[in-house]
Inverse folding.
């Protein structure tokens, strides 16, 4: 195919290297390399009819072997092309294909045009930073140059207060330095940073400032203007979310000039904000360009060595030593973010943000002990500034990854008791999986050092798992399916080789756990299974353990009651707008309702009815409306069950005319005589409470369900036990009659998630009946059901046949957020030490 194409620019040239004649058709540098590899040992060119005609090629391990070839060097270093190749051939190459004449350095990047050049014109040139060993990273400098150019172009840059602007002659030296693509003088702060001495750092900065002034000849006023430009750089980058690159160069400028003190703490905080939120090279310490400063970026040779590790053996000892020295120096080098944070902490008061950045850097270097010591020092010096999860978590992860379970457990306990450190489900799963993988939940395990000193009764075995799961159940409600898989694999790994775990097989992290509902686990079998708990008996199909409905404790009920009253005002403000008078009045009405419940005499209410929910039930049809007959039907049914009901209704439904919400926004309902009679009957019997105008009825029926009803109750326990002689519905009193699922409910913002879930499980009773058409109903039967038969939260229960002692076959059930409502992850560790090994 190559022999069929002709080079039009060669004219009558009869040179036999026809492939070379097609050089202008090469589409990449690798085509050129391919051609050079076919060059014969004598330095000339020869036509190859077949690949088999080629002499055995010299082993080439990298592109630089080609570039270093004597013939190649003689070709590229010459001022003219080889005599055997017409000069006009290389001159006629397309702009996108470099000729050998243009190769003056041994870098692959010199073979391609600059990304900033205009490909549509071969005459356009751009000014790019010098690629000297001390030059800043090119891409980072370009980003910095773009920002600083905007700053110095502003009239404010040279403006003086109450004076004429500075002259161009005065400003020019400042511009020259700010725009210079490499440092003008050396600087080294390693001794001060290593000693962690604030005094040493301040002295070094003062010396550097004098050195810089002597080198650049900037006077104090010019120095101050340049300093202001670098401060403005941080502000502009932070506002425009430009990334870390401009800040990295600006930081080098600050160090070079000794301005780190002069810019002030706010400037360093701004730099830290950008570096910690950009997720770029500032945080990781690497350059974002192709070549890092001083040649620290990876070259193509490094990449080729990774692809072909055997080529590493051919390096001579001198190259290896230089490489090891370079790698060692890179390991010791701080990232820009860590460096700024360290300067900040030595010059000013440390903050949680600066400490967090330094901790992450130490963790990246594998120094978990040093990172934790830094946390301890900060906590001791700043007792009011509590550390957050983001600062602790990297250290905990490193301890877990390195199997340092003792330190991980100690740190985790410290995190639990830090007020500003809010643990998430994944954090508990991380600790549990790490301990399980190391086998510490096995009965024959070695103890975890220091566990008992932390307050645990047991330092290994199934009993330790019970203690940790109990702690988790008090703070966490559920976990994800991904966490469930992690726990499964952790137990499969930690119990590998034991008879009790022979049913466990490692699963892919993306695989779905399949339910195991058909096989009852053996007495001595380790259970880590996805199960579906029976909705009517609350029994686990694998372990036969029975799950509980966990009730609100008395102090939790009071907490819920008070939080509703305290949070109602802010919720009313969102609902009613900014009218302070209306908001205050609405909150006062709710407080009056709470007081009325506590002080009223007579029988205590045992059933609170969400009146609007009942009246609208199944009324979304053509003749549907707000049906008072359904309300009357509900009250009568509850009284037949020996309950004393209270109906909560919004005030608008007790007016003569009101708009009904049955699907037609234009439907206006008018009360008839029978409906008015129902209202009068409920009011006269003390069974109806009208919510004042502009008040949310949700707060009223919810508050009523947790009210003490101090006077009317008179210390009597209103709850109804199962199997009572009166045949009443068993459960907590007062019960709340509603079918409101309360998903995304505004009340959720007022309560801690665990309190809401327990309140919902304990007090909510759902209903069903055939909808009324006006006052007619085909089937006047009503059914009731609890919202939950067992609590949707982590709980441990004894397994039948194991006894009731803690740790003796306790079955733990974890709700999974993305599984069905009745599905759980079941974990049970047998405590028997017999037959644990194959």
């Amino acid at each position: 195919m190559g022999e069929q194409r002709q080079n039009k620019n060669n004219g009558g040239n009869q040179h036999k290297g026809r492939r070379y004649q097609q050089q202008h058709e090469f589409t990449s540098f690798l085509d050129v390399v391919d051609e050079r590899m076919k060059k014969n040992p004598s330095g000339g060119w020869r036509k190859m009819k077949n690949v088999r005609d080629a002499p055995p090629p010299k082993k080439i391990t990298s592109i630089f072997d080609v570039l270093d070839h004597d013939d190649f060097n003689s070709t590229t270093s010459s001022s003219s092309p080889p005599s055997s190749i017409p000069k006009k051939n290389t001159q006629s190459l397309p702009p996108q294909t470099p000729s050998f004449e243009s190769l003056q350095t041994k870098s692959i990047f010199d073979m391609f045009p600059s990304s900033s050049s205009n490909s549509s014109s071969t005459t356009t040139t751009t000014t790019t930073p010098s690629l000297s060993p001390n030059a800043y990273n090119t891409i980072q400098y370009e980003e910095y140059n773009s920002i600083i150019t905007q700053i110095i172009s502003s009239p404010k840059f040279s403006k003086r207060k109450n004076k004429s602007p500075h002259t161009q002659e005065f400003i020019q030296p400042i511009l020259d330095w700010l725009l210079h693509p490499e440092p003008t003088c050396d600087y080294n702060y390693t001794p001060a940073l290593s000693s962690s001495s604030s005094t040493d750092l301040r002295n070094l900065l003062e010396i550097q400032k004098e050195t810089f002034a002597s080198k650049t000849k900037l006077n104090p006023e010019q120095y101050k203007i340049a300093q202001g430009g670098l401060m403005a750089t941080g502000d502009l980058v932070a506002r425009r979310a430009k990334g870390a690159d401009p800040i990295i160069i600006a930081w080098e400028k600050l160090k070079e000039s000794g301005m780190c003190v002069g810019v002030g703490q706010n400037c360093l905080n701004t730099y830290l904000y950008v570096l910690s939120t950009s997720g770029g090279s500032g945080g990781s310490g690497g350059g974002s360009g192709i070549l890092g400063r001083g040649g620290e970026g990876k070259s193509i040779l490094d990449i080729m060595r990774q692809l072909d590790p055997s080529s590493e053996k051919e390096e001579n000892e001198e190259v290896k030593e230089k490489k090891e020295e370079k790698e060692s120096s890179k390991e010791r080098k701080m990232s820009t973010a860590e460096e700024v944070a360290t300067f900040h902490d030595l010059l000013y008061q440390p903050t949680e943000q600066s400490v967090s950045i330094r901790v992450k850097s130490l963790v990246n270097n594998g120094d978990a002990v040093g990172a934790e010591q830094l946390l301890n020092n900060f906590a001791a010096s700043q007792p009011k500034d509590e550390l957050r999860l983001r600062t602790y978590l990297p250290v905990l992860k490193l301890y877990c990854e390195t199997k340092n379970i003792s330190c991980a457990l100690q740190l985790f306990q410290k995190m639990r008791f830090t007020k500003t450190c809010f643990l998430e489900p994944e954090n508990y799963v991380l600790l549990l999986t790490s301990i399980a993988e190391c086998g510490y939940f096995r009965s024959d395990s070695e103890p975890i050092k220091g566990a008992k000193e932390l307050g645990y009764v047991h330092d290994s075995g199934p009993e330790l798992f019970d203690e940790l799961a109990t702690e988790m159940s008090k703070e966490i409600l559920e976990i994800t399916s991904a966490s469930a898989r992690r726990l499964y694999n952790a137990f499969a790994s930690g119990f590998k080789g034991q008879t009790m775990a022979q049913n466990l097989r490692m699963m892919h992290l993306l695989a779905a756990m399949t339910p195991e509902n058909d096989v009852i686990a053996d007495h001595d079998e380790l259970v880590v299974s996805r199960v579906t708990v029976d909705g009517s008996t609350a029994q686990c199909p694998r372990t036969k353990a029975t799950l509980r409905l966990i009730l609100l404790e008395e102090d939790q009920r009071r907490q819920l009651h008070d939080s509703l009253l305290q949070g109602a005002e802010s919720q009313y403000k969102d609902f009613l707008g900014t009218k302070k008078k209306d908001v205050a009045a609405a909150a006062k009405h709710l407080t009056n309702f709470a007081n009325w419940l506590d002080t009223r005499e007579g029988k205590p209410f045992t059933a609170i009815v969400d009146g609007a929910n009942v009246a609208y039930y199944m009324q979304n049809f053509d003749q549907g409306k707000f049906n008072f007959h359904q309300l009357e039907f509900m009250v009568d049914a509850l009284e037949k069950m020996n309950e004393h009901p209270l109906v909560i209704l919004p005030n608008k439904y007790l007016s003569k005319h009101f708009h009904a919400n049955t699907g037609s926004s234009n439907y206006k309902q008018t009360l008839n005589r029978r409906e008015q009679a129902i209202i009068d009957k409920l009011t006269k019997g003390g069974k109806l409470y009208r919510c004042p105008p502009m008040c949310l009825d949700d707060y009223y029926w919810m508050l009523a369900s947790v009210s003490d009803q101090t006077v009317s109750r008179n210390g009597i326990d209103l709850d109804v036990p199962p199997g009572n002689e009166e045949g009443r519905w068993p459960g907590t009193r007062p019960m709340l009659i509603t079918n409101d699922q309360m998903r995304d409910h505004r009340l959720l913002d007022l309560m801690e998630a665990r309190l809401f879930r327990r309140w919902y499980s304990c007090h909510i009773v759902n209903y069903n009946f055939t909808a009324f058409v006006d006052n007619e109903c085909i089937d006047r039967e009503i059914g009731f059901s609890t919202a939950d038969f067992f609590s949707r939260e982590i709980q441990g229960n004894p397994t039948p046949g194991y006894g009731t002692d803690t740790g003796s076959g306790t079955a733990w059930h974890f709700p999974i957020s993305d599984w069905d409502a009745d599905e759980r992850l079941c974990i049970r560790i047998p405590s028997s030490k017999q037959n644990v090994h194959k």
